[in-house]
Specification:
The chain is mostly helical and 197 residues long. The protein has helices spanning 28-39, 50-67, 74-88, 126-129, 131-134, 143-157, 161-176, 182-194; strands at 3-7, 12-15, 95-98, 106-108, 114-116, 121-124.
């Protein structure tokens, strides 16, 4: 999606309209594998760094998990915090990444066959960018589907599988504690933890 104008003082962006605006459904992984490298541009301020976002998640996960009534086992919270702390401090090249990329945030358009919307941009390593795709339940919510997405995305995009797996676990739990999808996200994180080499 193209940025047409911005007003940093008022925190306003004017973005192009996607027409016809049809959501990505068929051939989703194929399309996403093509789109992701096009999004990975060098970036910096005013975008938040993935390291800062991960630090915020680390500082809030346990509190939000307790506030939500401890909807899943504490071992998942501990694992996510540990993984996020390790990965944030050891990132590779920093590029613009979309922290909420899934098929419902990719629309058919006139200018390009597919445009990405609702970017929630961060600056971080490429391995992080596949985390939301890996957990995208609209692409199938079962262990086999989740691990196949992890393996296919990392293989076809030349990414470090273990770092991508770690980011997917960390972000999935960070987002689980503040969502209505506790059980689904926890299940995804368990499958990914079991997928260690």
């Amino acid at each position: 999606m193209r940025l047409l104008a911005r007003d940093d003082e008022r925190h306003v962006l004017l973005l192009e309209r996607c027409r016809p605006g049809t959501h990505l459904r068929e051939r989703a992984l194929e399309v996403l594998v093509d789109l992701l490298p096009r999004l990975w541009k060098p970036a910096g301020p005013p975008f938040t760094s993935l390291a800062d976002e991960a630090a915020w998640w680390v500082s809030t996960i346990r509190v939000e998990w307790e506030r939500a009534g401890k909807p899943f086992e504490e071992a998942l919270v501990d694992a996510a915090i540990s993984i996020l702390e390790e990965l944030a401090a050891t990132q590779a090249e920093q590029v613009l990444v979309h922290q909420d990329l899934h098929p419902d945030n990719v629309l058919a358009a006139e200018r390009e066959p597919w445009l990405v919307i609702d970017p929630k941009p961060l600056v971080g390593e490429r391995e992080f960018a596949v985390a939301p795709v890996i957990r995208a339940s609209e692409l199938g919510h079962n262990r086999r589907a989740v691990i196949e997405r992890l393996d296919r995305l990392t293989s076809e995009l030349g990414l470090d599988r273990e770092r991508a797996r770690g980011w997917a676990i960390g972000q999935t739990i960070a987002w689980a504690v503040d969502s209505d999808f506790h059980a689904m996200h926890a299940e995804t994180a368990r499958w990914l933890l079991e997928a260690a080499p």
